[in-house]
């Protein structure tokens, strides 16, 4: 699915980039063409203005003298740059031209008649050798029964050659740009889709893990219910163990569903936070007091050393949940006769909470995944202790939602220390 989406995004990006390149290339080409041919036109106009009056005077003089309209000097003595000159009469008859003028490249009768109507015009023609020419037609002063047009032209092959070179450069550059756009688009599409793909992978993993976690308590509930059904004639007291198992698994299932709901709200940004200035020290003391009820029956001492009052901006309920999760984990994975220590103090501009136990610790290879959902460093012990593998993921979410950080340092056989830092109020 993501492979097809990546290619679609790549092709869209490349298509848009190609359209931009084509439009820019067309603009550059047309602008260059206009500039080049405007220069050609300007040169032809300048030369026509210089020659039109002298040629017209010679024609009028010859007409008055009654002589033949041939042999009249047309154009400058030296025609540099490939310019040619010719004079045409009405109907297209050429009465004189420079030696380099190609009759095939001169204007036709229709263009000459248009020029005689008083319109100075440019005409693109082709020489007998296939060379592209541009000719300007300028009507000359009229005699009584004679009307003439001065033609000034030159080859436009240099400009056309330059434009062909420019077109080749634009085509090669544009093609290379489109190929680069394909590569860049493929890379950018991958980067853009990677967070979505990771989120989808996490979601699929979460659903798979949740299904696995739900299957175990449901199977146990069903098995114990079947025992009760098979011995329905017996009093409940005879199968009190099955009843206790059902209640225990129901409690575990309820806790698991509640934690899954919390994480689902975190993922969708719908979890509500009632932010206020609260005494983090009082929250930690209250949570520790409640958790001693779990620690003492296991022979684990729970000590709290808290600076107070220590205020932070946060949700009191969520912060209490954070402290409870950390202390609960420390108690679960500690052996009888050990201690759990909770320290809370101000460290610069931060409120620093440390929960330290003397338990079995966590293997170094498991630490990078310790905050992953449903991850358990010791799966058998975790399930035995009623762990769901979601507590630390929730703790991390709460800490980060309060613009804080959470980190774990652990040494196998010596214990684990969890440190949470939250911005302290002034």
List the keywords.
426 residues; alpha+beta; Beta-Lactamase; Helix Hairpins; Heat Shock Protein 90; 3 domains; 5-stranded antiparallel beta sheet
Query: Approximately what portion of the residues adopt beta-strand conformation?
Result: 15-25%
Stretches where pLDDT is under 50 for at least 5 consecutive residues are: none
Specify the helix fraction band: 40-55%
Number of helices: 8
CATH architecture of the largest domain: 2-Layer Sandwich
Q: What letter string, H or E per element, gives the SSE order?
A: HEEHEEEHHEHEEHEEHHEE
Coarse morphology:
rod-shaped
CATH class of the largest domain: Alpha Beta
Question: What this model shows, in words?
Answer:
- The chain starts with a helix and ends with a strand.
- The chain has helices spanning 2-65, 109-116, 157-230, 240-268, 280-295, 316-332, 379-384, 391-401, and strands at residues 84-89, 94-97, 121-126, 132-139, 148-155, 276-279, 301-306, 311-314, 339-347, 350-357, 405-411, 415-423.
- With 426 residues, it is of the alpha+beta class.
- The chain contains eight helices and twelve strands.
- The protein folds into three domains: 2-163, Beta-Lactamase, CATH 3.30.450; 190-267, Signal transduction histidine kinase, dimerisation/phosphotransfer (DHp) domain (Helix Hairpins), CATH 1.10.287; 272-423, Heat Shock Protein 90.
- Strands 2-1-5-4-3 form a five-stranded antiparallel β-sheet. The chain has a five-stranded mixed β-sheet with strand order 7-9-10-12-11.
- The protein is rod-shaped.
């Amino acid at each position: 699915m993501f492979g097809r989406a990546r290619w679609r995004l790549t092709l869209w990006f490349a298509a848009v980039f190609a359209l931009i390149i084509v439009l820019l290339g067309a603009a550059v080409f047309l602008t260059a063409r206009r500039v080049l041919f405007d220069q050609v036109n300007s040169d032809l106009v300048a030369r026509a203005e210089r020659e039109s009056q002298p040629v017209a005077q010679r024609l009028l003089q010859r007409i008055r003298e009654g002589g033949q309209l041939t042999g009249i000097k047309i154009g400058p003595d030296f025609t540099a740059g490939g310019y040619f000159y010719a004079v045409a009469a009405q109907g297209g008859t050429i009465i004189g031209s420079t030696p380099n003028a190609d009759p095939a490249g001169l204007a036709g009768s229709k263009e000459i008649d248009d020029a005689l109507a008083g319109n100075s015009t440019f005409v693109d023609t082709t020489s007998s050798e296939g060379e592209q020419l541009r000719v300007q037609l300028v009507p000359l002063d009229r005699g009584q029964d004679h009307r003439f047009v001065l033609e000034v032209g030159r080859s436009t092959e240099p400009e056309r050659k330059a434009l062909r070179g420019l077109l080749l450069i634009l085509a090669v550059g544009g093609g290379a740009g489109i190929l680069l756009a394909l590569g860049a688009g493929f890379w950018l599409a991958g980067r853009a889709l990677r967070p979505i793909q990771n989120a989808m992978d996490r979601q699929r993993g979460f659903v798979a893990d949740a299904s696995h976690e739900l299957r175990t308590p449901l199977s146990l509930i069903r098995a114990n219910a079947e025992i009760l059904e098979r011995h329905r004639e017996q009093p409940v007291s005879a199968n009190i163990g099955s009843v206790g198992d059902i209640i225990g698994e129901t409690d575990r299932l309820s806790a698991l569903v509640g934690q899954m709901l919390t994480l689902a709200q975190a993922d969708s940004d719908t979890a509500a936070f009632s932010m206020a200035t609260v005494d983090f020290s009082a929250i930690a003391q209250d949570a520790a007091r409640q958790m001693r009820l779990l620690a003492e029956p296991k022979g684990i001492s729970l000590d709290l050393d808290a600076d107070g009052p220590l205020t932070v901006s946060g949700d009191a309920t969520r912060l209490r949940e954070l402290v409870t999760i950390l202390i609960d984990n420390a108690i679960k994975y500690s052996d009888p006769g050990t201690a759990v220590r909770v320290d809370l103090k101000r460290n610069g501009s931060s409120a620093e909470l440390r929960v330290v136990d003397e338990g079995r610790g966590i293997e170094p290879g498991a630490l990078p995944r310790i905050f992953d959902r449903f991850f358990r460093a010791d799966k058998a012990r975790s399930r035995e202790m009623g762990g769901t593998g979601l507590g630390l993921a929730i703790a991390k979410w709460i800490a980060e939602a309060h613009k804080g950080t959470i980190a774990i340092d652990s040494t196998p056989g010596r214990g684990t220390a969890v440190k949470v830092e939250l911005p302290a109020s002034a």
